[in-house]
Design goal:
The structure is a homodimer of 341-residue chains. With 341 residues, chain A is an alpha/beta fold. Chain A has helices spanning 4-11, 15-22, 30-43, 49-56, 72-87, 101-112, 129-137, 159-172, 193-207, 224-235, 250-262, 294-310; strands at residues 61-66, 91-96, 119-123, 142-145, 153-156, 178-183, 217-220, 244-247, 272-274, 289-292, 323-325, 328-331. The N and C termini of chain A lie far apart (77 Å). Chain B binds a DNA duplex (30 and 30 nucleotides) through residues 3-5, 13-17, 19-20, 23, 25-29, 32, 47-57.
DNA sequence: ACCATGACTGCAAGCGTTTCCACAGGTCAG
DNA sequence: CTGACCTGTGGAAACGCTTGCAGTCATGGT
């Protein structure tokens, strides 16, 4: 293992100059820089991150905390964050904490706080005030995506308003018997999102003077297969059926469409389905949905952090904790139409 | 930020003793240990990872290199690796290099080699001999999953044999007009898998004396939507149709089933479809497939590395580079049957 | 001809741990 | 009673860089 010392010797320069040359700092003559670079290349020298982090205080490493890596939204965010960080020369440390709160705590205590991360991105994770304070106390900027993080910057979509919009789309088509497929209660603990979307749905229904039937408020785990099972239960209930379903995610909307097909229901003729996300698979099913660019949200979060870090806001100046709304769009495809006569 | 020095002062011990006490080393009296621990807790002390890594040479950090995070196989592996590492107190650094080889190189040079990783897991990535040698030269164990890594340990399934098995399943049912849906040529660069699976298919066909029609050898990008489009093309060709399709992944098999439904073809009555993976969604479609436990493969890879690291095989003793085959099982559901009369 | 200026460079002091080593007491067999 | 040993402990040397500081040497204005 060649160290910087070896490079210095080989190049006939001092350690200090080599360090400056290789890290692209100013005040190094072109000649020295070239000398250092060739020597480093010849020796296959790569600086030790630990040593340089220790000495400089910057780690070039951002932590990403996710509840899942399988669900579309999260893997999309991950993709956006990852690409942005890689291009910027930053490492991405992933904490896939799962839905269980158990692991969460240990992640926070044992990992996040160990000053090895320059910043943290938390997705759909409601951190307690204490937890946020701990992180900010260490002078680590935090950005939350899709979750409300008091005191930290946040990127999110207007979940409540968009749910209203989706519901209104169905109402305007003339539907009155509308079901809502939301997230499982268990998912509502950390990730308050299901509740918020559900509230938007209820508000829109109330505003339109429509009644909400409890038996048409069903839940699933945000996966296609989970929603498929729930939707089969909904559609097979034997009593009157809804003419439209608003699913809290595209994956769940797709599960609903698959269930409808199994029952011989034509979408949208017999059943309208609207989702929310912008899943790539939506096109195959002609799914009407609200497009939120999850990948873009991840990329934006990463960019924001990098700017903060590069701006050198060296310590704790968390800047103004901005709360920005990410743009979305209603994409009308062929899964929604007027209700059957 | 409290340092170990502060803890030592508060506990009335020396830095050395505190360090030993907190990291659970021997030769510390019970009293001193308790003293150190309470002092550390009171000060909210957390050791600096960089400093301790620098001093001890162990980073407690494993790198995972993936070509994608969206496709089922990869996110499943990721999940397995992540859970195992988190439980062991290790960090996971994720390199989502994408399908483009461009980013790959930079990841290798700029990231992997910076001695900040204790080990590397590479999924479906064919590293060149040089690249492997570089890593091994740094004394970092590597485990490859699903890809042939000369010189490194590997976990994989018998892709060629399993493809044969899948194809034979169709042949034994009486099918003779069998199509194969493989990965896009672009994906075959790094990730030779499509070619290997295709070879298995061809071998089985040849052994059975069946002819392989070039126009029934189609490809897609391993996603449902991509396979859906390709399968529509296949099924809509107007000429004679295949009676069965072997798709190189479950996601592609599902895309095929969706396309078949669009054409009014009943699965399995009019068209048998077999996949390969064990995707959770397979159940919804009654998909016959070969179950490979991707999550388990990831977990196993992580466990193997942890053992190697903990065994203290301190440097370069790469152990015997084992190449182990992960167990799989043929899961027969309802997407395959005898061909139409 | 002289000094201020600025571009380069090297020395050495950290960065915050881990760990080698020496050393102080106490235990125990001979 | 003594030397061999073991358990705990603290001092201090790494670990491999970054960076403040001071010093060297041309340069150019006056």
């Amino acid at each position: 293992m060649a160290g910087i010392k070896d490079v210095a010797d080989r190049a006939g320069l001092s350690i200090a100059t080599v360090s400056r040359a290789l890290s692209g700092k100013a005040n190094v003559s072109a000649k020295s820089r070239k000398l250092a670079k060739t020597a480093a290349a010849e020796l296959g020298f790569v600086p030790s991150y630990h040593a340089s982090s220790l000495a400089s205080g910057r780690n070039h490493n951002v932590g990403l905390v996710l509840p899942s890596v399988h669900r579309w939204y999260f893997s999309s965010v991950l993709e956006g964050v990852s690409a942005t960080l890689l291009d910027a020369g930053y490492d991405l440390t992933l904490y896939n904490v799962g839905d269980q709160a158990v692991r969460r705590e240990s992640v926070l205590n044992d990992f996040l706080l160990r000053k090895r991360l320059d910043a943290v991105i938390a997705v759909a994770l409601v951190l307690t005030d204490d937890e946020i304070q701990q992180l900010l106390a260490i002078h680590r900027p935090i950005v939350g995506i899709g979750g409300a993080l008091a005191g930290a910057s946040t990127i999110r979509i207007n979940d409540s308003g968009l749910s209203r919009m989706a519901t209104n789309h169905l109402i305007q088509l003339g539907h009155t018997r509308i079901a809502h497929l939301t997230g499982d209660p268990a998912l509502n603990q950390d990730f308050k999102l299901p509740g918020i979307r559900q509230a938007g749905f209820e508000a829109a229904m109330k505003d339109a003077g429509l009644s909400i039937r409890p038996e048409w408020q069903i839940s699933a785990d945000f996966t296609i297969q989970g929603a498929y099972a729930s939707a089969r239960r909904l559609l097979g209930m034997g009593t009157e059926r809804p003419t439209a379903v608003f699913a809290a995610s595209d994956e769940m909307a797709i599960g609903t469409i698959l269930a409808a097909r199994d029952f011989g229901l034509r979408v949208p003729h017999d059943l309208s389905v609207i989702g929310m996300d912008g899943h790539e698979l939506g096109e195959v099913f002609g799914l009407t949905t609200i497009n939120q660019d999850a990948r873009g949200q991840g990329a934006l979060a990463a960019r924001l952090l990098l700017e903060t870090l590069d701006a050198g806001t060296p310590a704790g100046n968390d800047g103004a904790a901005t709360d920005r709304e990410y743009p979305t769009e209603l994409v009308i495809r062929t899964s929604t139409a007027v209700p059957p006569a």
